[in-house]
Amino acid sequence: MPPPCTSSQQALELIIRSPGAMVDDVVFQCPDLTWNQIFLAIDRLSREGALTLTPKGGGLYAVQVSDEASLGILVA
Fold first, then answer.
1. pLDDT tens for each residue of 34-44
2. What is the DSSP string of 35-70?
3. Which of 5, 7, 15, 52 is most buried, by the most CB atoms less than 10 A from its CB?
């Protein structure tokens, strides 16, 4: 049996499938995770350079995989 997905893995997989999704959309697509778990995962992945956050105004942000991270994901 494979190990369970972490919140970071689950969020990253969703963001890869839906580039440019709003952060709130990621939260709604991961009902088994809390908003805080998703926020922390996105924050950590963003600081590591795996994700890019784009402000859309009104406190809304779109999130997508960064170019460097997508190259690493394709190679891995």
1. 889 888 989 99
2. HHHHHHHHHHHHHTTSEEEEEEETTEEEEEE-HHHH
3. 15
Domains of the chain and CATH, by start: 7-75 (1.10.10.10)
Q: Which two tokens stand for residue 67?
A: 């170019």
The candidate with the shortest Cα–Cα distance to 63, out of 30, 27, 23, 34, is 23
What's the pTM value of the predicted model, to 2 decimals? 0.74
Cα(58)–Cα(33) distance, integer angstroms: 24
Q: Is 15 exposed, middle or buried (0-12, 13-18, 19+ CB in 10 A)?
A: buried
